[in-house]
């Protein structure tokens, strides 16, 4: 009986405090206040109340700020009675996020809005739109890299797999930005490819822009050896092979490379496999293999490749391509030796003087 009286007393005081807010109001607001006090669980009543209030211009003057605070208070009262209303949370968060545009990432208003998103996700954690709004909100502040990544990871854990595509879209867009560390972007992209393996070519282009040539070559080699892979860009296996050959010859992996993907790649085996598979590009692949050894400073190995290529090709076109490249290589070697000899002669003359 005592607890029943106490509850009744608290409800009466709460009703009196809410009723006190109806004083000194316009007739329109007074009518809406009466309506929401009678039916606090009616979402449409709260929405009609908010629609009736003029939001004003989005300026930073005192009147606009006071109007925003007034609307936020009404939203908070509405959500207190309807915490599971998607409609109210969506309107509230949209309005706060729109008002915070252009604010610094460490602004107090942003911290309050992020707290509102956290409160919303306690009941709206199965709503992908709320997660996407939260991700886009923290993503807009460039300094919140870790918070954005964690928000995306939480969304992937909370939502079913059938809705992960909606989360990955803003997640991938975020990690492709220049200020995101390349190590973080690569780890996230690898997870994304487990969900969408068909987008491997996008990852290759991303790595190419970031100058990660070792992983570009490794990923291209993986795609070439994957019989089930279908290029979304319409590229054939032949085109992917040529891309791979171009990468490994122009950017050969170093023996002391920090990345394991660089050291694990057998360029010689890759190019010789292409020579056996694509007979119409034999001459180009032999010269590419020789160029790979030249760029690594292994001139004798390059000569052996040229000799092997000249002896093995069966068409005039391939023979001419390899022989011309071989001749240019020998000319460049002779020119370099002559220049080195001239420099030595000049040094000896300087010493004798």
Short description:
About 75% of the residues lie in helices and about 0% in strands.
How far the N terminus sits from the C terminus, by CA atoms, comes to 117 Å
Low-confidence stretches: 18-23, 55-62
Main β sheet profile: none
- The ordered string of helix (H) and strand (E) elements is HHHHHHHHHHHHHHHHHH
Helix content: over 70%
Q: How many DSSP-defined strands?
A: 0
Computed over alpha carbons, the radius of gyration is 34 Å
Work out the strand percent: under 5%
Spatial shape: elongated
| Average pLDDT reading | 83
- Which structural category do the helix and sheet elements fall into? mainly alpha
Helix count from the secondary structure assignment: 18
Task: Describe the fold and architecture.
The chain has 353 residues and is an all-alpha fold. 74% of the residues lie in helices and 0% in strands. It has helices at residues 2-20, 27-38, 43-52, 62-81, 86-99, 108-123, 128-139, 145-158, 164-175, 182-195, 200-209, 213-225, 237-250, 260-264, 267-277, 282-295, 299-312, 316-352. α6 (108-123) packs antiparallel against α7 (128-139), α11 (200-209) packs antiparallel against α12 and α13 (237-250) runs parallel beside α16. The longest helix has 37 residues, at 316-352. The chain is elongated and about 100 Å long. Mean pLDDT is 83; it is low at 18-23 and 55-62.
